[in-house]
Amino acid sequence: MCFICKRLGIGYSNLPYYKDLFVWTPEQLWGSGAMPCCPSCQSNSDVRTKGFRKDVLGRQVVSLDDCYYMITRRYICKACESNGIAENQCNFNGWNETSLKLLPNGYQYCFPAVLSKKSALDKTTVDMMRPLFDKGVRPASLQSLLMELHTKKYTKQYIMYNYQVKAAINKSRRFRQARPKLELLSEFGDCRGYDSFIPSPRYLKSVYVSNHEKIMDHMDIEVKKRGALRLSIDFLLKVGKHL
Predict the structure, then answer these.
(1) Which residue among 46, 126, 141, 166 is least packed, with the fewest CB closer than 10 Å?
(2) What is the pLDDT of residues 5-37, one digit of tens each?
(3) Shortest CA distance to 11 belongs to which of 2, 22, 20, 19?
(4) Apex CA 70: angle with CA 65 and CA 73, to 5°?
């Protein structure tokens, strides 16, 4: 991280403030064959990139013990545009739900989050919901678990940062240098600092319900399956009954 900031000429200060950034560009990850398909015509033959949005910094995604950000490109389907399709239908984000389902080779499963209107949950967190909720764990209890894991990671980074500050001060004293101007680590939820976030129980429940409505048909089929060690097939034509 420090090396990248130096190359870009960006100031580099407090490591805990830097969050992971996931860039979703399928055509760059897997080649031109993975160009997102247009949700309207369900084809990518005339899809072109429009660049990244400038009015939104990124989508915040809540994982088990931290938050990260995710961005994607905007795309436009020239075929739909020339056919007079509405602008909001021929312009779409790379993580459009319909477009994700049309990606080849199962690339949709590499998408790391479940999106809502303005936020997102990491799939690892969402996958934990069904076994936990089936055992009687409530959304409020899951929120408490996320709070515990997030604050524990924050506390560890807070302690490590204080040791770094102490080492920098001792170094300046040893070499009789000017005391470095180091600020304290921000609060847990400071949007201009550490910027962590824990969703409400109501939000967790809504994501759980909406996600399982999408996979309900698959889960019904899985429940009906029965395991077997031997498959027996009767080839007799029941001729004896007609004698």
Answers:
(1) 166
(2) 666 666 666 677 888 889 999 999 999 889 999
(3) 2
(4) 170
